[in-house]
Amino acid sequence: MKQGARIWGFGSINIDHVHKLDHLPAAGETLASHDYRVQLGGKGANQSVAAARAGAKVCHLGAVGADGLTMRDVMEGYGVDCGGVQVTDAATGHAIIMVDRSGENAILLHGGANHALALDPALEALKSAQAGEYLLMQNETAWQPEIAAAAAARGLKVVYSAAPFSPGAVQAVMPFISMLMMNEVESQQLQEALGTEIADLPVQTIVVTRGAQGASWHAKGSADIFVPALPVQVLDTTGAGDCFAGALVAALSEGVDAPAAMRFATCAAALQVSRAGAASAMPTRAEIEALASEGG
Q1: Do residues 68 and 45 lie in contact, with contact meaning Cβ atoms separated by under 8 Å?
Q2: DSSP for 76-107?
Q3: 3-state secondary structure of 19
């Protein structure tokens, strides 16, 4: 793939506190973790890092508090342009992530600066965006409809990753988005909430991730595409969906067709879940291409 259209990531930046446990706690249960680390997180940061590591040019719009400047620096170290990241008086968003021995996780999230960011500076930054570029966003920040509307008005292709899932949040941005990305549970919940089938949703392209089964692409006027997941030893699923989203948009931004972009994203996610961490586990473009060349 060649350097393609720029990607604007509008989304959360978190400080992740990750605990490794034998099993996830039941209600009322107290457990001792056997490993602990602090790392960059947030779905927005994860997606921007995934896209940048996959070879895209990425500019991130978001916010941190004074306690999160290190997280901004980490993003820049991964190749993300953070000139659009605001520093607010609020604490940086954070997550407490519990991961069991099978790689499954449970997450407690606090929005912090992600919900304190100012709209006007973000809109100002978007004025340098060009038609045909991409906006990649999700449901962990303030001002989603406003940013989606502004991006669409400038001719950007708006990709919305519907997590954490809220039918109302999806409906608010739906008039402005080109692609909607959901996991299988979210897809079912949205169809039930709106009383409509996935094919009848007013979005040109819908991508549904299905965990260990793979992912499917549904675009109006063309045949559905299904790409199976690769068999890998799963170590940590944290950030797997974000990795898939970032890698998929990175491939699409370079003009790759849908089947190849889906395979590229599937290879990226397979590598990511075989490693510990979220943003730190995002594979490089060279690693993704190497796995793809092996038959991934």
Answers
A1: no
A2: HHTTEEEEEEEEESSPPEEEEEEE-TTS-EEE
A3: strand
What pTM, to 2 d.p., does this model score?
0.92
pLDDT in tens, 16-74: 998 999 999 999 999 999 999 999 999 999 999 999 999 999 999 999 999 999 999 99
| 242 is a catalytic site residue | yes
Catalytic residue of the set 16, 22, 73, 242: 242
Upper half-sphere CA count for residue 89 (Cβ side, 13 Å): 0
Question: Bridge-partner residues for 95, per DSSP?
Answer: 16, 109
Domain assignments of the chain as residue spans, ordered by start:
9-24+33-293
Distance between CA atoms of 45 and 35, rounded to whole angstroms? 23
State the virtual CA torsion across 117, 123, 124, 130 in degrees, nearest 10: 140
3 state SS for 182-238: EEHHHHHHHHHHHCCCHHHCCCCEEEEECHHHEEEEEECCCCCEEEECCCCCCCCCC
Distance separating alpha carbons of residues 10 and 137, to the nearest angstrom: 5
CATH topology of domain 9-24+33-293: UDP-N-acetylmuramoyl-L-alanine:D-glutamate ligase (3.40.1190)
Instruction: Give the residue among 288, 289, 281, 296 at the shortest CA–CA distance from 45.
Output: 281
- 229's tokens: 């997941």
Q: Measured between alpha carbons, how far is 83 from 8 in angstroms, rounded to an integer? A: 11
DSSP characters for 134-160? EEEEESSSS-HHHHHHHHHHTT-EEEE
Low-confidence residues in the chain, pLDDT < 50:
none
